[in-house]
Amino acid sequence: MRLPGRLSAAIDVLTDVETRKRPISEALKAWGLNNRFAGAGDRAAIGNLVYDALRRRASHAALMGNDSARALVLAVAVRDWNEDPAALSASFGADSHAPDALSEDELARVVGEVPDDTAGFVLADVPEWLAPSLQRGFGDNWIAEGQDMAGRPSLDLRVNTLKSSRERVMKSLIRFTPAETAISPIGVTMPAGPGDARTPNVTSDEGYLKGWFEVQDQGSQIVAALAGARPGEQVLDLCAGAGGKTLALAAAMMNKGQIFAYDSDRNRLAPIYDRLKRNGARNVQVRAPQPDALDDLVGKMDRVVIDAPCTGTGTWRRRPDTKWKLTPELLAQRVGEQAALLLEAQRFLKPGGTVVYITCSILPEENDDQVAAFIAANPGFSSTPAAELWSVAFNTALPLGLETAQGGIALTPRLTGTDGFYLNALRLAA
Ligand SMILES: C[S@@+](CC[C@H](N)C(=O)[O-])C[C@H]1O[C@@H](n2cnc3c(N)ncnc32)[C@H](O)[C@@H]1O
């Protein structure tokens, strides 16, 4: 397929996403099944167009004067992919799969700029109702933070030090020109390419099948390292899900000590068994959800990790559709779940133990506010100093701007080139 056909397909997929409230991946898959002539390169390009359209949905719509799928995709082609609008429009005539040629109005709009006096939420490409919250969290930088959250993410891998080394993994993936991650000492990264660039398919690589690495954003690797689990400790991973953090903790503990991996959702936990095997993680006991699943752990844990259910606002670059689906009700629901988990986690700690609270959110309601309320109600706990956590994990000074008012650590695409994450290590007095 040529670009006009791909644009047309992207308009169809985006319409499907928006009207049926389908996740992007599902809509893309459905399109692929109905259009089997399309190759992998076509599908990747169409996916990129749809993701880019949603990453900057608000500013694309403001520029074009409407938020139809057509307007958004045309804006991507010109603003993000640097296509010349007149040439593009002319090329539509020669392609039977192309969208209609651009109107005079579209041609004029698509080369314009979003005026500087446009509302901040449009410049930041975030939902209007979240602007006050982001402003409170990021101060004067909130628009810049939003803009970086609307970019394309890199593909990051965490080297499994139980089985391999960074050097070996990089060598095995040399065809993708991997680079070392800037902060995580065990990370490998492949920057996102422009336009129709394809994301490397690393999970069919021999090294992946042998358990040498996992696909894991550098931000997730950093918070797993900051969790500070040491060999020999007793650790409860209370929201283990498919085990992304569990695997990183097991490697950090060099398979010594014990991790109990629990999740209240059996289906989310299901992939962990195969992943543990592939990774050679042998110090993990999976606890499937049932009423007494964790009763024997009460008062015995050195560390309880809460990788909390959250809005996922830190992952907007990867899942831009969720940015526009989030509602105040869903945020309130997540905040309630997080508070309940913080309360629940305490009972498993030994005196002197630590609750490590993690989210992949950039919203203060789920991060510092949550911690402030917890410490106010539970004065036996205090935040472990952020600088201490960082120097123990990485042997370097905490970079400026990462420490939050409540002594937590916040990562963002703008600050650390990672997904957005928050961590606060709450130590119980001995
Ligand atoms: C952010 S995800 C965890 C991701 C996982 N730790 C990883 O690194 O791949 C949050 C998880 O919390 C789980 N969860 C939600 N409420 C819970 C609860 N009350 N107790 C335990 N797990 C819960 C969800 O099922 C979900 O899998």
Automatic annotation (TrEMBL):
Keyword Transmembrane: no
Domain SAM-dependent MTase RsmB/NOP-type: 145-429
Biological process annotations from GO: RNA methylation
The UniProt record lists the keyword Magnesium: no
Pfam family, any one: RsmF-B_ferredox
Binding site for S-adenosyl-L-methionine: 263, 307
Active-site residues (renumbered): 360 (nucleophile)
UniProtKB keywords: Methyltransferase, RNA-binding, S-adenosyl-L-methionine, Transferase
GO MF assignments: RNA binding; RNA methyltransferase activity
Superkingdom to which the source organism belongs: Bacteria
Database matches in InterPro entries: MeTrfase_RsmB-F_NOP2_cat, MeTrfase_RsmB-F_NOP2_dom, RCMT, RsmB-like_ferredoxin, SAM-dependent_MTases_sf
Family: Belongs to the class I-like SAM-binding methyltransferase superfamily. RsmB/NOP family.
Protein name per Swiss-Prot or TrEMBL: 16S rRNA (Cytosine967-C5)-methyltransferase
Species the sequence originates in: Devosia psychrophila
